[in-house]
Amino acid sequence: MIRSLYAVYGVIVMLGLGTAQYRGWSLATVNQVKNVPRSVRDNPGSYRSVYSSYHHYTGGK
Amino acid sequence: MSASGPTPPGKPQVKALNCPGCGAALTLRTFGNAVTIVCDSCHSILDATDPNLQILQQFKVATDECRPLIPLGTRGKIRGTDYEVIGFERRTIQVDGIAYSWHEYVLFNPYKGFRYLSEYNGHWNDVSVLKALPEVHASSPPTVRYLGETYRHFQTAKAETSFVLGEFPWQVRVGESAVVTDYVSPPRVVSSEQTGQEVSWSMGEYMSGKEIWKAFHLPGDAPEAVGVYENQPSPLSADTKNIWVAFAVFLLLLVVMMIGCDTLARNEKVFTGDYKFDSNQRAESSFVTDDFELKGHTSNVEVTTSTDLNNRWIYLNYALINEDTGQAFDFGREVSYYHGYDSDGSWSEGGQNDSVAVPSVPAGRYYLRVEPEGDPGYGATYYSVTVKRDVPQYSFYGIALLALLLPAILLTWRSLSFEHMRWAESDHPPVGSGDNE
Predict the structure, then answer these.
(1) Separation in Å, CA B51 to CA B11, B20, B276, B389
(2) Same domain flag for B179 and B148
(3) How much is the pTM?
(4) Which of B311, B336, B358 lies at the smallest CB-CB distance from A30?
(5) What is the DSSP letter of B307?
(6) Taking CB atoms and an 8 Å cutoff, what residues of chain A touch B396?
(7) Domain membership of residue B224 as a residue range
């Protein structure tokens, strides 16, 4: 019983892994934005990233 | 338990007699085979081999004395053979001043002879007398070998008979004692009983109460087994072995998948550019790259930033923008690299390069909007940006490995806990077990 359950679970894990690899999943935090105006191409400053002026590391040891 | 050889075949019969002590009717079920019989009314132990049923012993019992779970006279089938319950005794050992009692049932078949059942806290054993002597090895812990199987010493204790009922193929007495030693190899137990110079050996095989109830067609449900018994087979040991075998198979598949994905991944460099960021300049720092084509199915895009940073940082706001649809993947990356030397020696923190995988990016024409930031006064930072399409992500293999490993580890831990509970009751408790567990 447990072996069968584990086999099913293992297959699900492997399928998930295969899907992650094929679809190019990533653990990175990325924000998706729709309908960015074409004018950004000519005027990059007109677009402001949501990460702009984010906390920046200023340290060192 | 005493041994008894096979009885001469004969038709099972019941003979009605009266107790010489109290006159109560007695039933002899093993006529000619029993050595002693106990009167249920006055608790006289009678000599069954004497036609006059001489009284050998009388004992007193408390009014709340336990009764056999399987009534005397009940017939059932054990391992394909019909047996009748003819005797019942309770035996008690003292461990650290605490009395532990178990019950033994004497079974009889006129063709097969005697057999026994033992019961403790809902755990049952089918017991038969050994036909050959096991080899005893005085190792630590001691072991015995019987029919090619090794049994590990579990417990030695002095057991006293504290209650008897029915017929017995030996001279039973209340108060008689024997040194009982158990050696286990679940689901079996080999036991020796020493009385004076006489040693008898028997083997028990674990049975569940449910099996006993079914074998003897007993009404209701068997009492629930309490705790872990010395030779109780672990319900998890087979599963634990199987799950590790399955894990090995999945691990192999994981490696095959990793090699396959690594081989099949495009891992295609689609863009690279070199840039300079001067944090002293007040002008707009953002810019866009040339566009590039992302081909194939929806997959990831890896953006790598390589810098010449030295004890400073740079922050890059990235937007990967689809030229046709206007869909953007917005993300920020900080690259910092610090190093130095102090009383602890040399140290470093961070790195000059950084990579990030943007997930699930459809095919199309894209460009990057890059907006670098940095502390004013640092001057120029030179960096390059490289974009790759469909790059294998190894972190998922690690996650999958952990996901596969976790159930196997949990099951193994539970299986080990079961064994820990078993041996905690033995003369060889695992390290960390309390004396009174």
Answers:
(1) 20, 11, 117, 100
(2) yes
(3) 0.75
(4) B358
(5) E
(6) 17, 20-21, 25
(7) 17-233
